[in-house]
Design brief:
The complex is a heterotrimer of chains A (230), B (140) and C (401). With 230 residues, chain A is an alpha/beta fold. Chain A contains 7 helices and 10 strands. Chain A has a single domain, classed as Rossmann fold (3-Layer(aba) Sandwich), CATH 3.40.50.300. Chain A has a 6-stranded mixed beta sheet with strand order 6-7-8-3-9-10. In chain A, strand 7, helix 7 and strand 8 form a beta-alpha-beta unit. In chain A, helix 5 (120-134) packs across helix 6. Chain B has 140 residues and is mostly helical. Chain B has a domain at 41-129. Chain B starts with a helix and ends in a 6-residue tail after the last helix. Chain B has helices at residues 2-6, 8-25, 41-66, 70-93, 103-134. Chain B is elongated, with a radius of gyration of 17 Å. Chain B is built from 5 helices and no strands. The longest helix of chain B has 32 residues, at 103-134. With 401 residues, chain C is α+β, with helices and mostly antiparallel strands. Chain C folds into 2 domains: 3-49 and 258-399, no CATH class; 54-250, no CATH class. In chain C, helix 2 crosses helix 9 and helix 9 (309-339) packs antiparallel against helix 11. Chain C is elongated and about 100 Å long. The chains are: A alpha/beta (230), B mainly alpha (140), C alpha+beta (401). Chains in contact: A-C, B-C.
């Protein structure tokens, strides 16, 4: 599914200063094509995570809109948008994001657990396949408290992919991982893109450029094209 | 921690059985002897419950020892009818004193019934849980 | 989908220790309500039964009886004890104006009789004039009360047709009375001939401290129903003024002592319940608040996985429901297991009329306790649920690095 942002921007009000508005993301036009891995580079605080949240339906923009195909997702009400995210959008957030009371496979199948439209057991084979790909298949019934940062990250990646969504958004997906696993994760994202998914990755690691089909840079909330490093 | 969880049924059963056995002779014993030193009916109910209580305690310790094996489940099942008999002892099997506001009616009888019912229920649940976990066919 | 596959269930069981503490807390709250309401309503039922049972407007006792410290309990609730006056007082009282019905009673406390080590109160009454005992006969062998027949209170486990022996005299159980929740339930009623016979044997056996009384010419207590057109106070004053060496009491005033204690006990129970509840509500509120606050990031992750805001508060409320429902149901079971079987012990230790309410009323008490406990739990969780539904996903996800 093609994702289009039209003039999407975000202003925040600094809470401490009352009316002091600052612009995190300037009105941005961007298209994320299916079948491609789109990369967004930039330093921390440049607004790239905010843009990712806007594009992935988590943060309504102050200006502009976000279209999935022809649907303006922010015109949906919360229930419909949440449903839409559940089915069509996979998000790999920053940091540690496991649900502590669920084991690894439970965490991976979380989107199904929330939607309750499928018998959980029936999605286990695909969950196991993903765990195999990510090298965490031996951790199936381990609780998150016993996992390392890199393992938790891979669980989050599997969770984002379990519903075979149309779009995957990854916020610094490789920041806890060693070189070998970084290559594995980016390779998997790249392969997912090649199978027709729109993949959008935010990172500050230059190495990721080798996997990108399209890449952008963000500085102080302003986006600019960057030539892919082929 | 896991060990405690596995033996929780046996532990609870042993505590309840001990409470019944010791309690019927102390905290909730039946009425004392009459002025002339002779015992009233309820005393014999107390003795009977005491005897059954000892048997129940032995069974409970067996449940505790055998834990989640099928032997443990069997011992657990044996406690159910024994506890039922303990419950019926002051409630029909042996007559208590004539005045229902006497100690044996107001304290001994309800305490014995409540504890026995708790023992029976715990034992039955414990047995059911073990059978479900081990499967009825094979011993683990 | 199975319950065990729901996220709320996994969250509750995943934080076992915290959930267990909250379950115990709600159990305590529910048990306090169910025990409290059952005890208060049992006391009320007991008082009502006592009021209905007395039937008499005025009771006349010998003036010397007033010095007996529990004479009120003897006439009202059937406590063991006795006092006597000459039968001529009965005739004097009966001769006054404004009396519709009048009936004498004669008391005797049994020594440890054939049945029990505890003495019980034997009350002789006159079936001809009686208006306070006969209406409460629940089960009878039929026919008139013959000599050596007795009517027994509800707490004596003898049956109509059995025999019972006092002071070596064997009596037939002819009828059984309704339960009152007082010591009257262990009293035994006989006609005047029988009790005179019993008093005589007790004196012969040397077991009566009133060794010199003449049972044929004695009464213990005179029950009076005031005639229409006369006020109870009028008759009372008249009796106290003109029948010397006796003391007349209005039964309503005597009961007021009981109902005052009842109000005292109810207030005490109310205060105890309130204390448990204030503490419980504060802890529940804080527990839900902290549990949700500590999992902010988890809720943000649920948002990314497609949980709507409604769903987030739903998860919090479902967790609260699972915990409070488990707690309330177990608390009510425990409460019922304490109150229902041990009601005899409670009656004994309170020393007040205590009559368990009917099954439907007990059921209503339990349902009420369930509703308020679960309701309170849900209200405690509602604030946390509301806050989490307003979560700013983006901000929280950025928060930690």
């Amino acid at each position: 599914m093609k994702i289009t942002a039209q003039g999407a921007g975000k202003d925040f009000i600094r809470q401490s200063a009352g009316t002091n508005r600052f612009t995190a993301v300037q009105p941005t036009d961007i298209e994320i094509e299916p079948g491609k891995l789109t990369l967004l580079m930039g330093r921390s605080g440049s607004g790239k995570s905010t843009l990712l949240n806007i594009l992935s339906g988590l943060l309504p923009p102050t200006t502009g809109k976000v279209l999935y195909g022809n649907d303006d997702i922010y015109a949906f009400d919360d229930v419909k948008l949440s449903d839409f995210r559940n089915i069509h959008i996979g998000v790999i957030p920053q940091g540690q994001t496991a649900i502590q009371s669920l084991d690894v496979i439970g965490n991976i199948c979380l989107p199904y657990m929330l939607k309750r439209d499928t018998e959980l057991k029936s999605v286990y084979p695909y969950a196991r396949e993903l765990m195999e790909r990510l090298g965490i298949s031996h951790l199936e019934s381990v609780m998150p408290a016993e996992l390392s940062g890199g393992e938790l990250r891979r669980v989050a990646i599997a969770r984002a992919m379990i519903r075979k969504p149309d779009a995957i958004f990854a916020d610094e997906p490789t920041c806890d991982l060693d070189d070998e696993n970084t290559a594995l994760v980016l390779g998997l994202l790249k392969e997912t893109a090649a199978n027709g998914t729109s993949v959008f990755v935010v990172t500050h690691e230059k190495d990721a450029l080798t996997y990108a089909d399209v890449s952008y840079r963000m500085d102080s909330g302003k986006i600019s094209s960057e030539k892919p490093n082929r | 921690m896991k060990k405690i969880r596995e033996r929780i049924g046996g532990i609870v059963l042993t505590i309840l059985s001990l409470a019944l056995t010791v309690g019927v002779k102390t905290v909730f014993s039946a009425c004392g002897p009459k002025d002339d030193g002779s015992w009233m009916n309820c005393h014999w109910a107390e003795q009977a419950v005491f005897g059954i209580g000892i048997a129940l305690t032995v069974i409970s310790v067996l449940v505790l020892i055998f834990g989640k094996s099928r032997t443990g489940a069997g011992a657990s099942l044996a406690a159910v009818p024994a506890a039922a008999i303990a419950a019926f002892t002051p409630a029909g099997l042996i007559n208590l004193c004539m005045m229902t506001n006497m100690h044996c009616h107001s304290v001994t009888r309800p305490a014995v019934i409540v504890l026995s019912v708790l023992i029976a229920v715990t034992a039955a649940v414990n047995a059911a849980v073990i059978f479900r976990k081990t499967g009825r066919g094979q011993d683990k | 989908m199975k319950l065990t596959e729901s996220l709320s269930f996994r969250n509750v069981t995943g934080h076992g220790a915290r959930s267990l503490i909250l379950v115990i807390l709600t159990a305590l709250m529910a048990a306090s309500v169910v025990c409290g309401t059952l005890v208060v309503s049992s006391l009320r039922t007991g008082l009502e039964a006592l009021e209905a049972r007395l039937g008499a407007d005025i009771m006349v006792v010998p003036a010397s009886a007033v010095s007996k410290h529990n004479f009120e309990n003897i006439v009202l609730q059937g406590s063991k004890g006795y006092f006597y006056m000459d039968r001529s007082y009965y005739d004097k009282v009966a001769a006054r104006e404004g009396i519709e019905k009048i009936s004498p009673q004669l008391f005797l406390a049994s020594a440890s009789s054939g049945c029990c080590s505890v003495p019980l109160q034997i009350i002789g009454y006159d079936p001809e004039t009686d208006f306070t005992v006969s209406p409460w006969i629940k089960k009878s062998a039929g026919g008139e009360l013959k000599d050596l027949d007795v009517v027994v209170g509800n707490d004596l486990s003898v049956f109509v047709g059995n025999t019972i022996t006092f002071y070596g005299v064997t009596c037939n159980v002819a009828a059984k009375l309704d339960k009152t929740g007082t010591d009257l339930d262990t009293a035994v009623y006989t006609n005047m001939n029988t009790i005179r016979e019993l008093i005589r044997s007790s004196v012969e056996l040397g077991m009566n401290e009133f060794g010199k009384i003449d049972p044929d010419n004695s009464v213990s207590c005179i029950l009076i129903k005031v005639a229409d057109g006369y006020s109870v106070d009028e008759v009372l004053n008249d009796l106290n003024l003109h029948v010397r060496r006796t003391k007349s009491f209005k039964t309503k005033d005597m009961i007021s002592g009981v109902s005052d204690s009842l109000i005292g006990v109810s207030d005490l129970i109310g205060v105890l319940i309130a204390a448990v509840w204030v503490l419980g509500l504060v802890i529940l509120f804080l527990a839900f608040y902290m549990s949700v606050n500590g999992r902010k990031k988890e809720f943000a992750v649920l948002r990314t996985a497609g949980a709507s805001r409604k769903k987030l508060s739903g998860i919090v409320m479902t967790e609260a429901l699972m915990i409070t429902l488990t707690g309330a149901v177990s608390g009510i079971m425990i409460g019922l297991l304490i109150i229902l079987p041990f009601n005899g012990l409670i009656e004994e230790s309170l020393g007040l009329p205590f009559l368990l309410p009917s099954l439907p009323t007990a059921f209503i008490c339990a349902a009420f306790a369930l509703a308020v406990s679960v309701g309170a739990g849900m209200i405690s969780a509602a604030f946390s649920a509301y806050r989490i539904s307003r979560i700013d996903t983006g901000l929280i996800l950025r928060g930690d690095n």
